[in-house]
Amino acid sequence: MNHPQAVDILLVEDNPQDAELTIRALKKRNLANRLHHVEDGAEALDFLFRRGAYARLEPSAQPKIVLLDLKLPKVGGLEVLTAIKADPKTKSIPVVVVTSSSQDPDIQAAYDLGANSYVVKPVNFDDFFNAMNHLGFYWLMLNQPLK
Q1: What is the DSSP string of the chain?
Q2: Could you tell me the fold of the domain covering 9-142?
Q3: CA pair distance 28, 147, nearest whole angstrom
Q4: Are the beta carbons of 36 and 42 closer than 8 angstroms?
């Protein structure tokens, strides 16, 4: 996979079908041109903190948003969220948890750790597609980020 210098969206999703559907929904709104997809929490942290295969990326070119699943291999989503929000270089990046868990402890933990939003993945294909479409549009086009 190529490693772009400028990324608007970091998609952290291990389920290939959910990742593909998210990417398709964002492409429909022309929001996926600068999307980078990783499949586990360890790679997400490497990308964000410019380690390993991502060491040569421009440190200041952080994504505008992270779409983060909770149930990830290697490093879990809550651990990734903790690391993002604990570092001064990354703590202002909006993190939207996009997961299948609707359990109150997961929701509470995500918000306690600094998640900007928590979205339960709709089970229905069309509902999932529409939710990702609206999510991308809001965070990339309507939301005013901290500069």
Answers
A1: ----S--SEEEE---HHHHHHHHHHHHHTT--TTEEEESSHHHHHHHHTT-GGGTTS-TT---SEEEE-SS-SSS-HHHHHHHHHHSTTTTTS-EEEEES---HHHHHHHHHTT-SEEEEPPSSHHHHHHHHHHHHHIIIII-----
A2: Rossmann fold (3.40.50)
A3: 27
A4: no
Mean pLDDT of the chain: 88
Express each pLDDT in 82-138 by its tens digit: 999 999 999 999 999 999 888 899 999 999 999 999 999 888 888 888 888 888 888
| Domain boundary assignment for the chain | 9-142
